[in-house]
Design brief:
By secondary structure, the protein is an alpha+beta fold. The protein has one helix and three strands; from the N terminus they run βαββ. It has a three-stranded antiparallel β-sheet, with helices on one face.
């Protein structure tokens, strides 16, 4: 039986929500081992002068506790 833990992570990108998600997973994997999955809980964006300037994601990362 595996024991799993879930943490919440916030990330942003000037390119896309997918890029923000990828950045979060890459950064978290530097210190959190055995990542299993990512769940995008929420997405938002910042708009300036009629243009989207920043994409934000609120993620839940699941990893196995060894």
């Amino acid at each position: 039986m595996a024991v799993l833990k879930v943490i919440e992570v916030l990330s942003n990108s000037d390119k896309s929500w997918e890029d923000a998600t990828t950045k979060a997973v890459k950064e978290a994997s530097k210190t959190v081992k055995n990542l299993r999955s990512v769940y995008v809980q929420d997405q938002s964006a910042i708009v300036k002068d009629g243009q989207v300037t920043e994409f934000r994601v609120n993620l839940k990362l699941t990893f196995e506790v060894k």
